[in-house]
Amino acid sequence: MHSAGTTPRPVRGVRRLKPVLTTLTALTVLTSLTAAGAVPATARPDPSAGDVAEARRAVDVREQRLSTAAAGLADARARLGGLVAAAERAVEAYNGERVRLAAAERAHLAAAERQRASDAHLAQARADVAALAAQSYGGVDLTRPMAAVVAAGGNGGMPGYLHQASVLHHLSGGRAEVLKRMRDAQEVATILRAQASTAYTERREASARAEAARTAAQAALDRQRAQTAAIEGQVRDFEDRLDQARSEADRLARERAAAQERAALQRDQATVGTVPAGGSGSGGSATGDLAADWALAQLGKPYVWAAAGPDTFDCSGLTMRAWERAGVRLDHWTGTQWTSGPHVPLDSLRRGDLLFFGRITSNPGDIHHVGMYIGKNMMVHAPQTGDVVRIAPMWRDDLVGATRPG
């Protein structure tokens, strides 16, 4: 947000002036940027063409290694597929054994219940036999039937004999039935006991099979997880190494390009010396030149969010440090840098002036980028993550205005 008297936003026709101006063309146009030696050389050693080529070769080598490893990784993934299938089979085998174990447990419980009922029936039959053995009828020992008949005949004559004989007949038949029930109960109990024993054995075996299946399934899953982790680790390792090589090669290429830009600027300054007055390439004040020269000395240093030097910068961190060298304090924020110093028309720019990009609203955060004017419609700025401090054309669709700190 700017106060009364500040420069209004330029019309689109002005902002679109020479929109396709490239950095290379701009460097050619920069034939006069202050006196010779105004752009100090960086202390960082500049990468040579051989350094860049060697870095590119390292990328090629790692790409070849990654390609060679791809076949091995494909085989490993195929083995992993087999391990997954084996694990699934082991898990389902365990599930099947659990079903069979549940059936065996039910069968064992049923057999045990039948055995308990049979044992109770046998116990009752044995009790009946024991009672029968001790029983007598009318003082007659049932174990001596003939003596009982004779005794009955002597006491009651023939009618008494017939009566006693009839009683003995029925008692003998009942005794036989009791004994038969006991023998039957014994046979049934023996059969059911054997069935219960068999069911118990089957339950134990089913339990052992289920436990073995569970162990096998867990082992298969562990192998699968270990193989998966190993394969993923190999892939990450290959990709990380390749990314590192590419990043290093890109960094060297950017630094070399920045070094070439610096060299071109130094040659142009040595040849021409000063720039003519005017908006497209006016000279700066002593403080503006000092700020611009210091900013140009940072060419090639990486952009890092929230950084303000000495080895990395973001956009407002670069401009803050540059004007700090000129004795002017700025905040590390485009929002307040936009209101620090008077706004100047874009056709009256001087070296060191700050160029702002974004939108002018009530929210200062909508101005999101700042660069420093260095002449001939060019600026030095820290662009974005993954890039470095570099020179670029000032004309962009989101250019909103300029200020002159002081």
From TrEMBL:
Residues 276-286 have a biased composition (Gly residues). Residues 260-275 have a biased composition (Low complexity). It comes from the Bacteria. One of its GO terms (molecular function) is cysteine-type peptidase activity. GO terms for biological process: proteolysis. Residues 285-406 form the NlpC/P60 domain. Keywords: Hydrolase, Protease, Thiol protease. Residues 258-286 are annotated as: Disordered. Belongs to the peptidase C40 family. This is NlpC/P60 domain-containing protein.
